[in-house]
Design goal:
Number of helices of chain A: 25
Largest interface: A-B, 63 and 59 residues
Strand content of chain B: 5-15%
Number of strands of chain B: 5
Strand content of chain A: 5-15%
Number of strands of chain A: 8
Helix content of chain B: 55-70%
Shape of chain A: elongated
Radius of gyration of chain B: 25 Å
Strand order of the largest sheet of chain A: 2-1-4-3
Structural class of chain B: mainly alpha
Number of helices of chain B: 11
Oligomer: heterodimer
Distance between the termini of chain B: 70 Å
Chain lengths: 650, 225
């Protein structure tokens, strides 16, 4: 329960007076506050700095160090204070957690130190409030990555027993692992550079010979360039085939971007080989040569920065898309406007709207070639508006892309969003578990506990240590009492969802009523609350024997048992015969060595002939008729069970 | 005629001002919103001594109550939403907002939409430290939604449904739709002596005092504080 809300529990309990006149049944007794004492100030001395707070403030969270009796270990008798040899700065935020119910993460704090403090004081970090949780998680992730990087650096020792293929792959991926790999790395890099260079020089006009006019070097020294090209392509092909061979997953490798670039880089050559001097396709062949420029992308294996740039563009896809979209919109608008503005003027270059596109693009990007200029006044006005807006539209998404790039460059980031989502779910799950006591399941559990206590009281045992209810804090017991009063007022009981669904299935079958886990047997379908009180004094019906463990498996498909051990385990054999629960035989039970088992047993409907046949000894007072063999509808965890026995054993 | 001209002029002035601001680039100041409810209302209760006189709590108890109150509502007053929120934390399975609303109405004796500490503590003093008659009076006041001195069947049905709503749906036995209605009929049978369809305060007090369970349960929460 949240801290502040705990202070309102007395009010909620007082407000329950509104239910009293309408209730038909007597109310349960309120839990007594045995430890009633005036609220006192506690002094917490953390490395010399004294903090003071009320005792009830700390008691709000009984499952932490300060809220439980664990702090007694730190109590100093002479100074009458609790001394902790920890960092007083971090302690501030921890104490604030008790006061306000929200845990904050101070930004100046080191993440691992803070984590240690939280662990020491028994607080789970998932409770950190939403205001600080992102920061906390980011820092934690950074730290983990740092540790991971350190680990990776130590991993470069060669593992024994690697197959040849694995060695090759490792050599390809991490060139600095062996000399051979390094040599290979540089050689391929060199050849990529050569290839790109030859492509470029091919088109440069070489010196003019007297016989012919200027022609590009490529046509002059055809053979030389052809040899160079062949050599490069050979090297690239060999490299590609080797990578393909070494890849752990060939299919995966073939789909990767780098391999596609490789293929595109070397393909035109082979196509050119195949297609010889066919005049028709030579045009297409020339076009294919353009793809040779893709060889330059092969450099990205060699350059980290290039990879990051590619990754940035990929991650900024939405911003780029927005840029493109807005530019397109603006271009169309302005082109239309310019076209109609310039329509009147003679000998205008703005012959159509698509023709005006060129003008608009050149103007918006502030290039201004000047090959198309508006001549009319209206055209000039709109042209100036166009150039002004162009600056704006382009300037807006660019900073986003820039910041993205810098962020990625500095962190060398992977896609962590997926992981963060998983962590979010785990966090919620942990909080839910930690706060299970306050939810209704805690209440239902405590009801079972209560019933056990009733049984204990019945046995006349007055051993103090067996009062199991004290495992719950006073706050919780008061809250449960409140919920109990509500149940009594409305003559209905709380149930958890699983059992409720079972219940509903059974009511459709209509042969009998199922039982709630905490009720003793009731004969009427709609249990009146009063029967509970009445039944207290009578021997507990349905107190069939507790099942020995061996019987619990077998015909039973589901058994949820609450075991509370008081003292040493009672050997199961003694639990059977002597524990037919009758009031006069109560004294037989020796509580000291008892193992109390409350079993809620769901017995599958179709199979078991009778409940007795399942090994329940002793006459259960009430035996529901075996249900009709409807579709068993056995769900995974809960069978469509018909019989839910409450078996309590002492 | 002059009226219309004045309106036109005002509009033109506003447009001109807007254009002027647009051209000169002055940032448009956010129009000062005259919020009806300022978020930083600070409400101080009467002094401790006065409250001591008005209620039946001891000094210590008042201190503890105020600390809890102020912790949850630093502004010093509770509005209905916060009230509902706090109350719903205690009943996770059901919907307690209607009943919380009725409670709020019962505590808000000044009918100003907020519950101050005085209201809070006055109410609690009656419930926890008052005589049985006072407590029953308070409960009657809670049920009597329009505060006219009579509890009609409709009012009682509303209250009952709100209590049953707090249970939620996962109950044993399964919650029937007419369970509140049945309960109300039971109640009226018990309380309405002259069968006129309403329960007056005298009938209510009389019937409750005859019922042992109710009398016993009135003392249930005496030691809450």
């Amino acid at each position: 329960m949240a801290a502040g809300v705990a202070a309102w529990l007395p009010f909620a309990r007082a407000a329950a007076i509104g239910w009293m006149p309408v209730a038909n049944c007597p109310m349960p007794i309120a839990p007594r506050d045995h430890t009633k004492r005036h609220d006192e100030l506690i002094i917490l001395n953390v490395s010399g700095r004294r903090f003071q707070t009320w005792r009830t403030t700390l008691d709000r969270y009984p499952d932490t160090l300060l809220g439980s009796s664990e702090k007694q270990f730190f109590y100093d008798e002479e100074t009458k204070e609790y001394f902790f040899d920890r960092d007083p700065d971090s302690f501030r935020s921890i104490l604030n957690f008790y006061r306000t119910g929200k845990l904050h993460y101070p930004r100046y704090e080191c993440i691992s130190a803070y984590d240690e403090e939280l662990t020491f004081f028994g607080i789970i970090p998932e409770i950190i409030g939403d205001c600080c949780y992102e920061e906390y998680k980011d820092r934690k992730r950074e730290n983990a990555e740092r540790l991971q990087d350190d680990q990776d650096d130590n991993k470069d020792c060669k593992l024994p027993n690697m197959t040849y293929r694995e060695t090759m792959w490792r050599a390809f991926e991490n060139p600095h692992t062996s000399t051979m790999a390094l040599v290979f790395y540089y050689v391929t890099g060199f050849f990529i550079a050569i290839s790109v260079l030859t492509n470029v020089i091919e088109t440069v006009p070489c010196g003019a010979t007297p016989s012919q006019k200027d022609m590009p070097c490529g046509e002059r020294y055809t053979v030389a360039f052809f040899c160079m090209d062949t050599a490069c392509v050979l090297i690239f092909t060999i490299e590609y085939l080797m990578r393909l061979f070494a890849a752990p997953s060939r299919y995966q490798f073939m789909r990767s971007v780098m391999s596609i670039i490789d293929v595109v880089a070397i393909f035109p050559y082979y196509i050119g080989l195949v297609m010889t001097d066919n005049e028709d396709v030579s045009g297409a062949f020339v076009t294919l040569r353009v793809f040779r420029v893709f060889r330059i992308f092969k450099f990205s294996r060699h350059s980290q920065g290039l990879r990051i740039l590619g990754y940035t563009l990929k991650s900024c896809a939405s911003e780029l898309g927005f840029l493109l979209f807005s530019l397109t919109m603006a271009i169309i608008i302005f082109a239309t406007v310019m076209f109609y503005a310039e329509k009147g003027s003679s000998s205008t270059k703005f012959t159509s709207i698509p023709a005006s596109f060129w003008y608009t693009i050149v103007t918006m990007t502030t290039l201004g070639y000047g090959d198309m200029v508006p001549k009319t006044i209206a055209g000039k006005i709109f042209g100036s508006i166009c150039s002004l807006s162009g600056v704006l539209v382009i300037a807006l998404p660019v900073p986003v892309i820039v910041s993205n790039f810098s962020r990625i460059y500095h962190q060398n980031q992977r896609a962590d969003k997926r992981r963060a989502q998983k962590v979010q779910k785990a966090r919620l799950a942990r909080i839910r578990i930690a706060q299970a006591g306050s939810s209704c399941t805690g209440f239902l559990q405590s009801k079972r506990n209560d019933l056990l206590n009733d049984l204990l009281e019945l046995t006349g045992s007055d051993d103090e240590e067996l009062l199991l209810s004290k495992s719950m804090s006073l706050l919780e017991s008061q809250h449960h009492h409140l919920l109990h009063c509500l149940e009594k007022t409305t003559a209905h009981e709380f149930m958890d969802e699983q059992l409720y669904e079972q219940n509903c299935l059974e009511t459709t079958v209509q042969s009998y009523t199922s039982r709630s886990p905490s009720l003793s047997s009731q004969d009427t379908p709609i249990g009146t609350c009063c029967t509970r009180r009445v039944k207290r004094s009578s021997p507990l019906p349905n107190s069939s024997m507790p099942l020995q463990p061996s019987h619990q498996h077998g015909p039973l498909q589901e058994l949820s048992a609450l075991r509370i051990q008081c003292g040493d385990k009672l050997p199961p054999t003694t639990s059977r015969s002597s524990l037919n629960m009758k009031t006069d035989e109560v004294g037989l039970f020796n509580c000291k060595g008892g193992q109390i088992t409350t079993a809620i047993i769901s017995i599958p409907t179709p199979h078991s002939a009778t409940p007795d046949g399942d090994g329940l000894h002793g006459p259960p007072q009430r035996r529901p008729p075996p249900p009709p063999t409807g579709p068993a509808a056995a769900s995974i965890s809960t069978t469509a069970s018909s019989t839910v026995f409450k078996v309590s054993a002492l | 005629m002059g009226h219309r001209r004045r309106r036109c002029k005002r509009r033109l002035l506003r447009v001109a001002r807007y254009l002027f601001r647009w051209f000169t680039g002055t940032l448009v100041e956010d129009s000062v919103v005259e919020d009806g409810e300022l978020s930083t209302v600070c409400y101080r209760p009467e002094g401790l001594d006065q409250l001591l006189q008005q209620t039946k709590f001891t000094r210590r108890e008042l201190q503890i109550l105020y600390r809890g109150f102020k912790n949850e509502c630093p502004s010093g007053v509770v509005d209905e939403e916060t009230f509902k929120l706090i109350y719903s934390q205690f009943f996770p399975q059901g919907d307690s907002s209607t009943y919380a609303h009725f409670l709020f109405e019962a505590f808000d004796t000044h009918k100003n939409g907020t519950v101050s500490f005085e209201d809070f503590v006055t109410g609690l003093s009656i419930i926890l430290r008052g005589s049985v008659t006072e407590k029953l009076n308070w409960a009657f006041n809670l049920y009597d939604l329009n505060k006219d001195g009579f509890i009609t069947k409709e009012e009682m049905t509303d209250i009952m449904s709100s209590i049953y709503d707090m249970m939620g749906t996962c109950t044993y036995p399964c919650m029937q739709n007419d369970a509140p209605k049945e309960h109300v009929d039971n109640f009226f049978q018990k309380m309405d002596k002259n069968k006129d369809g309403v329960v007056t305060i005298e009938e209510f007090l009389e019937s409750c005092q005859k019922d042992e369970n109710i009398m016993q349960s009135m003392h249930l929460f005496d030691n809450v504080i």
